TrEMBL record, chains A, B:
It comes from the Bacteria. This is Antibiotic biosynthesis monooxygenase. The keyword Oxidoreductase applies. SUPFAM superfamilies: Dimeric alpha+beta barrel. The keyword Flavoprotein does not apply. Residues 2-90 form the ABM domain. Keywords: Monooxygenase, Oxidoreductase. Gene3D superfamilies: 3.30.70.100. InterPro entries: ABM_dom, Dimeric_a/b-barrel.
């Protein structure tokens, strides 16, 4: 499995709008096992996204899907930058689809 | 919802043993919606844990459960420290139980 943990910095006052776009963009994307979007309670413009994909290729392929491209285009003007971004290798846990 | 993102530093050579304990400890704990344990591919003694709970109280209560207490006791000697620990407020996403 391929995991991502990222902290997105939204433009001031734009966090809720960006959250909505990220929440709409998630769903049954091929190879996506987990995609959770969270507010940072201590940092009013920050959003944390934690993702689990079947593999790195399925994550990469998702970025070319028309619905994801469309979401990226809408999200881009609301994003100032990425404070933190790390790749992980999920080993398992609770909340992943049964294989 | 209440979220946690943490980076655990395992003792040298003990990451796999610690991973096994963390994976065994997860399951149908009351209020736990998501609990994913991952290796850090760039850091051979690091483990990332991302959690989503119904609320902070259910997470706190879980720490008193006998099976969790037992896992903590087994894990403790394998842990050097916590490099990173943050609370989040998950807003939604893919992979959470349908409410």
């Amino acid at each position: 499995m391929h995991g991502l943990i990222g902290k997105i910095r939204s433009a001031p006052g734009k966090r809720e709008e960006l959250l909505d776009i990220l929440l709409q963009a998630t769903g049954s994307l091929p190879g996506c096992l987990n995609y959770i979007v969270a507010r940072d309670p201590a940092d009013t413009t920050a959003i944390w996204v934690t993702e689990v994909w079947v593999d790195a290729a399925s994550h990469k392929a998702s970025l070319s899907l028309p619905e994801v491209q469309e979401a990226i285009a809408r999200a881009k003007p609301l994003i100032v930058g990425f404070d933190f971004q790390i790749e992980t290798e999920p080993a398992g846990g609770f909340g992943l689809p049964k294989s």
